[in-house]
Design a protein that fits this description.
Layout: H1 2-9, H2 13-21, H3 25-32, H4 38-50, E1 54-59, H5 67-87, E2 93-97, H6 109-126, E3 131-133, H7 141-152, E4 159-163, H8 169-179, E5 182-186, H9 201-217, E6 221-225, H10 229-241, E7 250-254, H11 259-267, E8 272-278, H12 283-292, H13 294-307
Parallel strand pairs: 1-2, 1-8, 2-3, 3-4, 4-5, 5-6, 6-7, 7-8
Helix pairs in contact: 1-12, 5-6, 6-7, 8-9, 9-10, 12-13
Length: about 300
């Protein structure tokens, strides 16, 4: 399987330098990350919301090594929220944050990440939107859930992400479904050991359906993070069986992948949210997009051959 190899490369400084230096890389990266600054991204936000879509915004960057970098990450999100307020788009655009970017891996990182993310959640609530805490590798999950629980005391709309490939996730989903959380379900995009995660695609897909059924039957708000046509159809059927209205769940897909499907679902009346990343520290995010789907890797390799 190429996925684990690509994920290993995402941690390699040598591969980072090699891929970053390739002439074609920026052209391909732009497919998934359409800008580096808030000013770059504003026309994208206006275009997508104008076409009936909603967004969740991610300022990319995970290799945080100092508290000052974590503070800068917090400030980048606060600047984004200020622009959304100016555009009067608070109700259409939420934020996704990785707690590693807020200092979670540093000494005292749990408290540091909570202290940095809270002002972002407060500012988001003030303009009528919210924040979803992204899931990262399995060693960070307990901290993420603890921060999620703490934030929900004051901001119950705060969302979180769960990953179908982790063995623990079925139990996590039962707990979150009962509590009425906003929960994005994804397959998972980190290199995890066999002791904690399913390794085969068919096992992950089956787990995804089991977990999605739990969320649809629960009291929360499911967010289906998938580009898989079969899983999208299954999600619609599970929502119908659970008696959910179209505004009681949503689909989420990545910017640059299956864009016509985004519009098709929105035209059918579904809530369709596009996960849109921007920023300069794009490497880790980009490599996980390649690892998630063979078609993404083929697109990159083909571009390297024809344009490099």
């Amino acid at each position: 399987m190429l996925g684990p190899v690509i994920l290993a490369a995402s941690r390699s400084d040598r591969m980072r330098r090699l891929i970053s230096a390739a002439p074609v890389t920026k052209q391909v990266v732009d497919r998934f990350i359409p800008g580096e600054t808030v000013d770059d991204i504003v026309p994208i936000v206006e275009n997508l919301t104008g076409r009936g879509l909603e967004l969740t915004m991610d300022v990319v960057g995970e290799d945080i090594t100092t508290p000052e970098q974590a503070t800068a990450a917090r400030d980048a999100y606060l600047s984004l929220i200020d622009r959304l307020k100016e555009l009067d788009l608070g109700e259409r655009v939420e934020m996704s944050v990785k707690l590693s970017m807020f200092g979670q891996a540093l000494p005292g990182g749990h408290e540091l990440a909570l202290a940095n993310v809270r002002p972002v959640v407060e500012a988001a609530a003030a303009i009528g939107t919210t924040v979803t805490l992204d899931a990262e590798d399995h060693t960070t999950i307990d901290s993420m859930f603890a921060i999620h629980e703490e934030l929900r005391k004051d901001f119950p709309q705060t969302g979180c992400v769960i990953q179908a490939y982790l063995f623990r996730t079925e139990a996590d989903a039962r707990r979150l479904a009962a509590s009425g959380s906003r929960v994005r379900l994804v397959k998972g995009a980190y290199k995890e050991p066999a002791e904690v995660a399913h390794q085969q695609k068919h096992e992950i897909d089956r787990a995804y359906v089991r977990i999605l059924r739990t969320l649809m039957d629960g009291e929360g708000y499911p967010m289906i993070g998938s580009h898989d046509p079969r899983l999208i159809s299954i999600a619609q059927e599970l929502a119908r069986k659970a008696g959910r209205k179209l505004d009681e769940y949503e689909f989420q897909m990545l910017y640059g992948i299956r864009s016509e499907e985004h519009l098709r679902l929105a035209a059918e009346g579904h809530r369709m949210r596009v996960y849109t990343a921007y920023g300069t520290d794009w490497y880790g995010y980009f490599m996980r997009r390649l690892a998630e789907k063979p078609a993404n890797l083929r697109f990159f390799v083909r571009s390297m051959i024809t344009k490099g």
